[in-house]
C-alpha cells in the first residue's frame, strides 16, 4: 500500500471540509486512481475539480502534466496538492 498525503486549497478545501488528508492506495497506483478515490470519498470531487479553470495539480512540487499526466505513478510518501489559481488586486 502507498500512503499519499493530499492537500486541498480553495473550493476543493471547502468541498472536502479539510485542508489535508492521507489516502491509502494500492501499490502501482497512478494519479487517476487517486482522483477516482477522492471522487468516491467526496461527492462530486471530480466534477468540481474539472470545473476549476487553471487548476494546478502538483506531485511532490512538480506539475503533473509535465511528469506523466493522469498516468503519473504515485509512491508511498508522495504529496499531491490541488491548487486553484489565486487572483488578487
Automatic annotation (TrEMBL):
<dbReference type="Pfam" id="PF02597">
    <property type="entry name" value="ThiS"/>
</dbReference>
<dbReference type="InterPro" id="IPR010038">
    <property type="entry name" value="MoaD_arc-typ"/>
</dbReference>
<dbReference type="InterPro" id="IPR003749">
    <property type="entry name" value="ThiS/MoaD-like"/>
</dbReference>
<protein>
    <submittedName>
        <fullName>Molybdopterin synthase subunit MoaD</fullName>
    </submittedName>
</protein>
<dbReference type="InterPro" id="IPR012675">
    <property type="entry name" value="Beta-grasp_dom_sf"/>
</dbReference>
<dbReference type="InterPro" id="IPR052045">
    <property type="entry name" value="Sulfur_Carrier/Prot_Modifier"/>
</dbReference>
<dbReference type="InterPro" id="IPR016155">
    <property type="entry name" value="Mopterin_synth/thiamin_S_b"/>
</dbReference>
Amino acid at each position: 500500500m502507498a500512503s499519499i498525503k493530499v492537500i486541498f486549497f480553495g473550493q476543493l478545501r471547502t468541498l472536502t471540509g479539510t485542508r489535508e488528508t492521507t489516502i491509502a492506495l494500492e501499490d502501482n497506483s497512478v494519479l487517476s486512481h487517486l482522483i477516482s478515490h477522492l471522487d468516491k470519498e467526496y461527492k462530486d470531487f471530480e466534477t468540481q475539480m474539472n470545473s476549476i479553470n487553471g487548476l494546478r495539480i502538483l506531485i511532490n512540487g512538480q506539475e503533473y502534466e509535465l511528469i506523466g499526466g493522469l498516468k503519473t505513478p504515485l509512491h508511498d510518501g508522495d504529496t499531491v496538492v490541488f491548487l486553484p489559481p489565486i487572483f488578487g488586486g
